[in-house]
Specification:
- 35% of the residues lie in helices and 23% in strands.
- The chain is α+β, with helices and mostly antiparallel strands.
- Strands 1-11-3-2-6-5-4 form a seven-stranded antiparallel sheet. Strands 9-8-7-13-12-10 form a six-stranded antiparallel sheet. Strands 16-15-19-18-17 form a five-stranded antiparallel sheet, sandwiched between helices.
- Helix 1 packs across helix 9, helix 2 runs parallel beside helix 10 and helix 7 runs parallel beside helix 11.
- The longest helix is centred in the middle third of the chain and has 47 residues.
Amino acid sequence: FFGSSKAMAPAHEDACRWADAVLLSRQYETISTAKREAYRRNSLSLEDHKHTCARENIHKPSAVQGHGYLLVMERATLSVTQVSANVVDLGYEINSLLGTSLMDVIGATAFDNIQTTIDIQESKPMSSFPVEFGVGEHRKTFASSFHVRGTSAFLELEPYVPVTSRGVDAGNVQVRCMSQKLLTVEGSVEGCQLLTQSVQSTTGFDRVMVYMFHPDQHGEVIAETLRPDSGVESLKGLHFPAHDIPEQARACFVRNIYSHIPHVKHDEIPLVPVDCPHSMERPDMTLVSLRSVAPGCTQYYLNLGIQASFVVSLVVDGHLWGLLICHHMSPKFVPFYERVAAAMVSEVLSLFISVQQRLELAQQQESAGRAQRRMVHCLKETHDPQAAFAGENGNVSDLLKCTGACCVIDGVVHRFGVTPTDEEILELVSFALEHSGGVLCSADLPDVYPNAEKFGERARGCLLQSTSTTTKDLKEGSLVCIWFRGSITRNVCWAGDPSSFTPGGMVPRSSFRPFSQTETLSAMPWTQSDEHIVSNFVRDI
């Protein structure tokens, strides 16, 4: 299934453009260093909490976690413009580094490694090389990674963990094993369970889970592996509100395919100076692994009892499908090569999910095609919509999953299953012709057609297509086909009482105790495939 990766490239590029648009949006604000620190001390008012959690530019903290060091450079010249304040612990004076050429800081050999990759490092670094950094007795070997973003370049320095030949091969072995095992599984959920088992066994995290996004962006833990005898509470089957991972965080996950917090209670190390001296703005740290964590996220993790985390994005056909999330109840550092191996095996799963979805789509379209041919043939032979759409030759629900359907032929309504009344249908058709050119697609019809409230219990979702574009043509050789879907009632087990979820997730909640609730939602969403099937059906008729 790796052959499909090239075809998915345009979709991924679209996702990156969306993510960049969100991250560059002016709706998010920079939170001052003083306010971030006050948040960490829990000394902010509720109103300030709201401002910090809901509005923060989380990718521009101008600060790093305390386990590493960061050099920020001007992209064009690779001269140092900002450094993390903790470089003084390695014997440097900050002013001695600012304005210095990167080659003079790290040496010619390491600089040559960077020069060979500078043109391709506009994405998350997947390779690392050792760099000597520090003054005198403070000089150490660090694992370095380099990337560029906008007008800035970044060199990250983390604890160096020597990689044995076995360690290098471990990632390849993990990918091969995962690929082979996926050939034997039934579907995406089983594949996700395999991923959690693989990553937990290699990293040793207390809890490894796959968090899947639903269409409304709320999340559900669909797979999980716990470290044996860890005593960690299971989160499998729990649902989390959409605002637990707000839009700007989801945008970061699309761009920044993995992130790591070795110690949730880390000291926040500011960059010096805070703003880039050239742009007079904070640098875009979207791809920086050392990037300091938003205070609201830190509090959320602490409320969950978590001391360390590692997250890998699962991007499927250009969409953030879910996340691989690893939790540990004590501080835990994951070496660079282990993080890359986990990202690689997660990408294998993402490709597998994409293939599964495409297979399901192909099967749906093939089944719909057979049903369409039967119904169209019967209608042409009998000129009887009842026989064609609800007779022995097939049913409209064979074409699309629905609770009811109808066709309006020359102004006469023919209904099947659970639908609005003839009068209500004709009013709906008139609305669609007047306001949307005879095409209407909605999973929550009252949102676009308020009169639908009176029959919402029978038909919440609507997919309508007409051969006419105006009401004048409605009784003269016209055809309108409509499929309806009823509201969905589901039993959901939330991670916490929904009544405790503050609007917009502005203050991290303290309780994640399972809370079961029965909800009535809009109809199951229509897909692009559904619209394509209906368009072909109306065309053939």
